[in-house]
Amino acid sequence: MIDRIYLGDRAVKGIEIDSWELIVRIRINSISRLPEGGAEWNFYNEEDLENGYMVFSNVSDFQINPPGSIPDDYVVDYSFTKISDREFLFKMYSGGQVPSSPQQMGECEILITHEDSWLENSLKEKID
User: Fold this and answer.
1) Which candidate among 10, 40, 42, 125 keeps its CA 20 to 30 Å from the CA of 99?
2) Which Pfam families is this protein grouped with (predicted)?
3) Tell me, what's the pLDDT at 15?
4) pLDDT tens digit sequence for 13-56
């Protein structure tokens, strides 16, 4: 599972879905990693991933709400919740294009139920 990350003041750049492999990738403009053994970010940037990916595998459910929205702005909040012995729920809220909103902009919710997750760099190489 992805841990030790900080996404404050970071933005969603895109989402890729590999239906055959049941993989969803969320591209983030910059993913900061917390120092090993650290609980706070404190502007640590030695392990930052520019244009990195949060990758989710064995995805059983993927939703973007409200329907028709396109996340393309700053990450507001995110969480991981264990929902069974094998599955986790990832929730992310970000700004984006929301057709049902009068201004066509607003907050989007991304929900991904998955079994595994990891980070990749901009070349889609897995990061330990």
Assistant:
1) 10
2) DUF6258
3) 98
4) 999 999 999 999 999 999 998 877 766 777 778 889 999 999 99
Question: How far is residue 14's CA from residue 43's CA, in Å, rounded to a whole number?
Answer: 25
User: For 126, how many CA atoms within 13 A lie in the half-sphere containing its CB?
Assistant: 9
Closest CA to 47 of 14, 92, 4, 1: 4
Query: Are the beta carbons of 76 and 94 closer than 8 angstroms?
Result: yes
| DSSP one-letter string for 22-76 | TEEEEEEEEEEEPPTT-S--TT--TT-EEEEEEEEES--EEEEESTT-EEEEEEE
- Stretch 54-71: mean pLDDT, rounded? 97
Q: Residue 106 and residue 16: Cα distance in Å, rounded?
A: 21
Q: Which residues pair with 114 in a beta bridge?
A: 88
Indicate the pTM of the whole model: 0.92
DSSP for 102-113?
TTSEEEEEEEEE
* Contact call for residues 10 and 28 (beta carbons, < 8 A): yes
- The percent of residues in the chain predicted with pLDDT above 70, rounded, is 97
Look-up of token digits 């989402």: 15
